[in-house]
Design brief:
Radius of gyration: 22 Å
Distance between the termini: 40 Å
Order of helices and strands: HEHEHHHEEHEEEEHHHHHHEHHHHHHH
Helix content: 40-55%
Oligomer: single chain
Strand content: 5-15%
Length: 446
């Protein structure tokens, strides 16, 4: 299944697509489904049970706040973590929750939203069970949803479906062959697939909106001092200041890769505090694509909107190809690694790289991330997540520059992806942001 660019680039609150955007959408969907079934007017109470990683780390990441916002009908794209927290505090203070297009029901988070750590549900994942009851306390509707990564949600009975696309591509070989047969560049194929759902103008406007939110998050990250939820201080503002104001020698000696690392850190720190960012492809990996897009726009012509769109289309084509090949929700290898590949592909594309060079850039950026697990310390999307964003952005930069200097690269990215998919399938749920493995249990303070 080839996903849309707007499924890979999603505007919303950090710090986690799985633990914030997914539950937010699940809550919205539950209310919509019971409204469609005609039972919403009879609902007097809604109970939510959280399992798996949600139960262990959901409080630290604002999963409960996101669910409350989703039940009230607030869109994930129009709020940040602070707004979600304010909404949850208001519901707790008033003791009532206004359901979207429905009644105002009594709601107390301590009673109606439970973090279940002693039980699991089938399929062993980040799961949510929503139960609606009427005034007689009878169950009128119940649903189980899984947050399957990148902000996507699926019910326990749902099977994936996809629109018919003019240029489906589940491998690099297939994508390069299609480009060669049609005489097209990789962004052109991505644009054609997007236009199945949207008009060309809507695609362009949507991607420029994505770029604007990326830039705004980066700017906030570079200029906002303070502390992260863990208590650690932000580092991007001081690094940016040193790079910019440390004198002519300091500014001149900073490399593109170093600047990319600082930019990625800025975005990752914004995500960590729940800022409004663009998940690319996840909130925890929001840094690399935004960083390299900024790196290119600094040296781009004044009117560079066409290049911005091309960058994001090339990035999304690579991300969609990896998703179609099965590289999905397998720890940081499917988040920061894919983000690095997407960023490198976009950067190589706007630097004038050929299709083969764009693919080679993605491969070079992806290789170092084979097999990385994802279980951050203290339940916060900070350590080692922010550093991984910085390293990935720097590597993506050098990968793109190396790729466009390679006249006829040999592409073996399909083999790398296959190895990563197999590794992810063998990976147990413990190292997938559950706080039950990795640095989460190795650090002394844990």
């Amino acid at each position: 299944m080839v996903v849309s660019a707007f499924e890979l680039f999603r505007i919303g609150a950090g710090p986690s697509s799985v633990h914030v955007v997914g539950p937010h959408r699940a809550a919205q969907r539950f209310v919509h489904e019971i409204a469609a079934a005609g039972v919403l007017p009879s609902v007097l109470r809604i109970e939510v049970e959280l399992f798996g990683g949600f139960a262990f780390t959901g409080r630290d990441r604002g999963t409960d706040h996101a669910i409350i916002a989703g039940l009230t009908g607030v869109s994930p794209a129009h709020c940040d973590g602070a707004a979600l927290a304010r909404g949850a505090a208001q519901v707790e203070r008033e003791g009532y929750l206004p359901l979207a297009r429905g009644p105002r029901i009594a709601f107390a988070a301590g009673r109606d939203l439970r973090f279940v750590i002693d039980r699991a549900v089938a399929f062993d994942g980040d799961a949510m069970r929503f139960t609606a009851r009427n005034r007689f306390d009878d169950v009128v509707a119940t649903r189980v949803y899984f947050s399957i990564g990148n902000g996507q949600v699926r019910s326990d009975t749902e099977r994936p479906s996809a629109a018919r696309l003019p240029h489906p591509h589940a491998s690099a070989e297939a994508m390069l062959a299609a480009c060669a047969a049609l005489g097209k560049r990789i962004p052109d194929l991505a644009r054609a697939n997007e236009c199945v759902r949207l008009s060309p103008g809507e695609v362009r406007a949507g991607l420029l909106d994505v770029a604007a939110v990326m830039r705004a998050a980066l700017d906030r990250g570079l200029t906002t001092d303070g502390v992260l939820p863990s208590g650690n201080r932000r580092t991007a503002p001081s690094w940016s200041l040193a790079m910019r104001d440390g004198g002519a020698a300091s500014a001149a000696s900073s490399t593109p890769a170093q600047r990319a690392a600082v930019y990625a850190t800025a975005v990752a720190e914004e995500s960590a505090v729940g800022g409004r960012i663009v998940a690319a492809p996840s909130a925890g990996a929001a840094g690399p694509v935004a960083a390299l897009l900024q790196l290119w726009t600094e040296s781009a012509p004044l009117h560079h909107d066409d290049g911005v769109v091309e960058f994001l289309l090339a990035s999304s084509a690579i991300g969609a190809m990896m998703r179609a090949a099965g590289l999905h929700h397998a720890g940081c290898q499917s988040e920061v690694g894919v983000a690095a590949a997407m960023a490198a592909a976009g950067y190589a594309g706007v630097l004038g790289g050929s299709n083969a060079q764009v693919m080679h850039a993605a491969e070079l950026a992806l290789r170092p991330h084979l097999g990385l697990t994802c279980d951050p310390a203290g339940g916060h999307i900070e350590d080692p997540c922010i550093e991984r964003n910085a390293v990935a952005a720097a590597r993506a930069c050098t990968a793109a520059l190396e790729a466009v200097r390679t006249p006829a690269p040999r592409n073996v990215i399909d083999a790398t992806i296959s190895a990563m998919v197999a590794s992810g399938q063998r990976m147990a749920s413990r190292p997938k942001t559950t706080s039950l493995a990795g640095v989460a249990v190795s650090l002394a303070e844990c």
